[in-house]
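# nightly structure sweep
# worker-07 picked up a monomer target from the shared queue
# config: single-sequence mode, recycle default, output format = structure tokens
# input follows
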Amino acid sequence: MSVLTLKGPHWVTVRQHRRALWALPAAVAACLVAAVALRVLSSPRGTLDPNIWYDLRPSALEGAGRGMLILPVLIAAFVAGPMLARETESGTYRLALTQSTTPKAWLASKVSVAAVVSAACAAAMIGVYRFGWAPVAGAYQLSWADRGTYEATGPVVVAYCLLGVGVGAVVGQWIRRTLPALLVAGAVTGLVVVVFGFLRWSVLTPVTLTTPLTERPETGVPRSAFLMESGLLKATGERMPEWACTSPSGGLGPCAADLRVTGRYVDYHPYAHYWLTQLIESAAVLTLAALALHAAFRVLRARRG
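# output follows
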């Protein structure tokens, strides 16, 4: 985003927060350099010891995926605190309103700049993460459904960043004190990320595979699938935990006749559910972001006309 092509409150916003706005592109560039370096060093012609590589790359990607979960929280905190509440708390926003700028245009400039930079950088980070993740996809803690990897490889992280902008806007207008606004916006956004993480695999019905009691249904599950639940089946269709027929040695033992156990089952999400879940979750998060932005402008109108 070139400052020279911007006018009015947008130009002022970029000038005011240029250092913070450059932090996101700088982080993307640093991540890209790290990803390229790890791939080059781990190649057959690279110099990185294979044993070191085996531990380093998955650990780095797992940490990067977790870091992507924090990004929306940081964006919400910055928009609510330094970008909005600080100006209200110090009274500097009044200067902008004397320059033929309406309160609505003032808030819109803050929100639009933050949204464009956040969404663009989040999309770039997805590409960087996928570049580093592709050769080790499916490794322990790096499956497409694992926390961190799931968010970092799809559009849902962009939606969460835009949610952070919306939450930051409404909290910054509502609280109007820098530190409390920063903390509340970050906490609310983080809570939404956590709640959706617990609920996302309940949206789509998992695929159920059943087998006779003497067979293990997991053998028929695709290797790329995300296992949800497994156990025993009674003749009535009722489900039971696997330990209901555990032998003293710890394996599956004979089941009591009165239990009437006839088979086993496993629930799983196939990889085909990945993109559908991403789209459903992104749509829900973007809806929350739009509602938050609407609430921010309503608060602005109620307090400043």
